[in-house]
Write a structure and sequence with these properties.
The protein is an alpha/beta fold and 151 residues long. The protein contains 6 helices and 5 strands.
Length: 151
């Protein structure tokens, strides 16, 4: 699977370790930065990853900042993105199964680097159930279209 990764200064160390772990699992990784420890603005990296996912350059995205919250807020502004903040196995799995999330957002100040890699791997491997959940995901898309004046 092609995965787009992004992080701000709080998540750069975790992103680097995650990129290596995902490559070991056979994933193709698009690293959208940041590359150093200097303070940066998380929306810039959330946008890059979100546009990769929405535009089809990547099948899924992983974003890492201090909490995952800011990244999710920013990524969800890009049409077609369903970004979820996850902090444990249950939220990582359910974001895929029931919500068809295509971007996971993780907090480097809340989770160990190894845990971030575990949750990202679960997220990437978990299938979307569809069925009764498809109607709900469709309603999310309809809200997005309404917001963007497409409906």
């Amino acid at each position: 699977m092609r995965v787009s990764l992004g992080a701000d200064h709080a998540g750069v160390e975790a992103k680097e370790a995650l990129a290596a772990a995902l490559r070991e699992r056979g994933h193709e990784v698009l690293d959208r930065g940041t590359q150093g420890g200097a303070s940066v603005d998380y929306p810039d990296f959330a946008e890059k990853v979100a546009r990769d996912v929405a535009g089809g350059a990547a099948e899924r995205g992983v974003l890492v900042c201090g909490t995952g919250i800011g990244m999710a807020m920013a990524a969800n502004k890009v049409p077609g993105v369903r970004a979820a903040v996850c902090h444990d196995e249950f939220t990582a799995r359910m974001s895929r199964r029931h919500n068809d999330a295509n971007v996971i957002c993780l907090g480097a100040r809340l989770l160990a680097v190894a845990r971030i890699a575990e949750l990202a791997a679960l997220f990437l491997e978990e299938p979307y159930e569809g069925g009764r959940h498809a109607r709900r995901v469709g309603k999310i898309a309809a809200l997005e279209a309404l917001r963007d004046g497409r409906e």
